[in-house]
Amino acid sequence: MASAPPRVRALEYRRGTLRVLDQRALPGRIVWRRLRRLSEVAEAIRTLTVRGAPAIGVAGAYGMLLAHREGMRDPGRAAGLLLATRPTAVDLSVGVEAVRSAWAAGEDLEAAAEAYRRRVVEECHRIGQVGAPLFADRPRVLTHCNAGALATVEWGTALAPLRVAHQQGRRLFVWVDETRPLLQGARLTAWELAREGIPHAVIADNAAGHFMRRGEVDAVIVGADRIARNGDFANKIGTYEKAVVAHENGIPVYVAAPWSTFDIGRADGREIPVEERRGEELSGPPSGRTVPRRSTIRNPAFDVTPARYVRGFVTPDGVVAPSRLAGRLARRATVQKSG
Q1: For residues 19 and 59, is the Cβ–Cβ distance under 8 A?
Q2: DSSP assignment string, 174-197
Q3: Is the pLDDT of residue 286 over 90?
Q4: Coil, strand, or helix at residue 67?
Q5: Does one domain contain both 179 and 205?
Q6: pLDDT greater than 80 at residue 1
């Protein structure tokens, strides 16, 4: 069983300051940003300084703490400012609510934020332990976007089982989609894998099907930003295409996520909000523009993949088939309500 945490940590809180690893600077530079105000945390989430559903949930929890330390009196207003930054990732609302409820009850906000961070880290570690055996006979794994420690504080979701398998000495090779337009795979996932010595290769997004058809991919594992009750899930744009092509080639697709990413209030993927970001992310800066100025640009940050393309959801408590997900979520909700 793996016990050593990864060498990457996305953020940390110390004595009134939230330090976040600026993911926009990677892989070329390691830059830590010090955030002391609610507005700074909101801007860091909005600009992808900190990103990944579980990580922004933790950032949101600490953002509420900083708002209270600033002297804000309305937890609802503070929560609203944070929730307006990224609409697709449900973890943000879960993290914010963990501290908002403590605020309303007059409890220790720092303890509440720290408890939420610890919960996310522990669940991601368990995801790694649960998921590692899935790849014992499927060593060539493809992943899309970044669902590693950078996206989750520590361990990761999709990368957690691969980290644990590597620590256990298992043979492994990771295909890393570049993940346009912001290259979270090429810049971030590859950076994490390289730091830990996990064999991998970065490929163009539109090369994944080529390697699948050649029989060089044994499994696909991705993270998620929101998972509906029926198992439809939102993840970085391009995930839907990978799942369809994997299904066509008989390759299992797994989705790894902590419980905070499951949204029992959304019946299916049609109810998941999809963020659309600025066209400049596609066209490039004025000095190196790659799209004609008269061209219209559409830039959805996520897409929704139907549950029928998923072999299993890798959760902190086991691998759950899509057909059993709604019942599992209902039982968890009942237990939590009674507790």
Answers
A1: no
A2: EEEE--TTTTHIIIIIHHHHHHTT
A3: no
A4: helix
A5: yes
A6: no
Q: What is the pLDDT of residue 285?
A: 80
Total domain count, the chain: 2
Query: Which two structure tokens, joined as six digits, stand for 19?
Result: 């330090």
Tell me: pLDDT of 287 over 90.
Answer: no
Flag whether 234 is in a domain: yes
Among residues 105, 123, 141, which one ends one of the domains? 123
Same domain, 169 and 299: yes
Average pLDDT, the chain: 95
CB 218, CB 141: distance < 8 Å = yes
Q: What is the mean pLDDT of residues 204-232?
A: 98
Looking at the structure, tell me whether residues 108 and 181 fall in a common domain: no
Looking at residues 330-336, what average pLDDT do you find? Answer: 87
Q: What is this structure's pTM?
A: 0.95
**Is 240 in the same domain as 132?**
yes
Q: Is the residue at 32 inside a domain? A: yes
**Residues taking part in catalysis:** 225
Range of the domain at 249: 126-338
The C-alpha R_g of the chain, in whole angstroms, comes to 19
